[in-house]
Amino acid sequence: MYFSKGNFSDLNRGVKLVLYAALLILIAGVGTSIWITIAISPEGKLTVDVAAFEVVRAIHVPVVAGILQVVSKLGSVPVMATASFLIVIYFLFLSPFSRWLALYFALAMGGVSGLTKLAKTLTSRDRPEFLGGFEGVTSSYPSGHASGAVVFYGFMIYMIGAASIGSKWKWIVNTLLVLIILGISFSRVYLGVHYFTDIVSGIFLGCLWLLICIIGVEATLRRQTKKEKEEAA
Question: pTM here?
Fold first, then answer.
């Protein structure tokens, strides 16, 4: 993958700056999520959540809501579970990459599901009343659609970035995947299913877990490459 045969120091300055910036954003986001977790209450609404719903009310259009209901399903449990199963099969039997990816992808998806459920259990935040069309049985905080979408589509972005395809296609496909993540996240607020802060924390929870899993992939493949070199020597 990215670092299995090289070092971070081998990257050019521009790439390093992007990675540093992403790390700083992640740290800031995790810190913000911790603050939100402490600040929210089961019935309480933060100022930013109220403001977000006021914006949504102002721009709410039934046709757009119908489109976003379809987009939202791209982050639903049935869709993600089915797609994850197929991707694990692909990594095991069809992918040119290491079969370790099947394990880490399964760990990524199973782990983010478990972490999100744990966070929901600890917070027990009531669902929003906006639009009043959703009967949620789990806590509103954090958004499982947001965290799951970040890990699932984020892992795909990671894989496509390492694939042997043209940079033009990488940009096109990865941009589409980023838009899907943002679309799923936005749809949850637009449809009145989640508060804005549910989405924020869901996104950063997903980013943090995705980073941990990618580090695991890189470390494992680097160790495997080193072992193969030693055996060949």
Answer: 0.89
